[in-house]
Structure prediction request, 96 residues.
Amino acid sequence: MKRITGVSPLSGYRLSVEFEDGVAGTIELESELFGEVFEPLHDPALFAQVRLDEFGVPCWPTGADLAPDAIYAQLTGQPISRIATSLKSSEPQKPI
Prediction:
């Protein structure tokens, strides 16, 4: 999983996101705020309470959270499966 190192709320239900490898950008979430967990985030004051949990996952007090790999894919245009493959190939190999 790609690790997010910074997240900031922006107007219009957008987030500014930065990853540990320097990839950064803005994602728009207004059309994604539906369902029991995400619907309350239409309140701008609640949306602004976004934070990173101990794993670098953007989350809110409502229990809503976002998948870092999906955000990375959106910002880079890479499919999620390709991101996972590149992560596996960059991990140190364990001795046999």
Helices lie at 44-47, 68-76, 80-90.
